[in-house]
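Dear colleagues,

As part of the handover before I leave the project, I'm documenting each prediction I ran so the next person doesn't have to rerun anything. This entry is a single chain, and its sequence is reproduced below.
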Amino acid sequence: MSNSVRQTFSRPKLSGAISAYLTEFIINNDLGPGDPLPPETRLAHELGVGRSSVREAVKALQTLGFIEVRHGDGLYVREYNFDPVVETLTYGLRWDPTTFSELLQIRVWLETAVIGDAVKQIREERVQQLDDIMETWARKVEAGQPYAEDDRRFHRVLYEPLDNTTLIKLLDVFWIAFANVGIEDITKDLDPAETLHAHQAILEAVRAGDASLARRRLVQSFSHLRKRIDEVLKEEWPSRNPARGTILGAGNSLSTEHCKE
């Protein structure tokens, strides 16, 4: 290793310099998800630094979701992810549930923007998958069982034909936030049958190839959750819920009427 590199690692903020080195190592060696990285002992030796400094840098990159530590097996490159975003949101939700309200609004904007392309690109085998999901979902509703995972799968399968991994990961951020919001009045669906029916209506529009109808029904499917969120914010956090248009409000660009093509 050159003296200039060794000098870099003798400066302050040593762990930050090592983190930057590891990031560049991944990029320069064209490493991808699942590829191994040099062990901590080797890195410490090659960089001329203490192992504790390497370990601190590794923890920082692990927190950012860049690498994973497999105990007893070593360091590996992770698939890119939104873990830091999820952690920040989870923390923020504990202090201010309006964060969840805003996240839902972003989700609606996102889904209404892409559902038209999904309808155009979806194939019969994918529609059959959605049918299977709805059958399982219906059985759970009838038995009074939780169905959140079926709801999540419905949206994943619907948008998978777009072949956009980042979109799916962003939608997963919402579901993780939903699971961690910690407010039963938001997470508990008081009318599971209606939620099921709303998604069946979306599926029928998708099956018919009617993008405009699918978009309107998608917006309508969020109405119950939107109402629960608004009621919680109004009753428990009135000072943090300034008057503003809601996702389905008459003055909002995502009202049912505005979703017509």
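The radius of gyration is 23 Å. The CA atoms of residues 138 and 196 lie 7 Å apart.

All the best with the project,
I.
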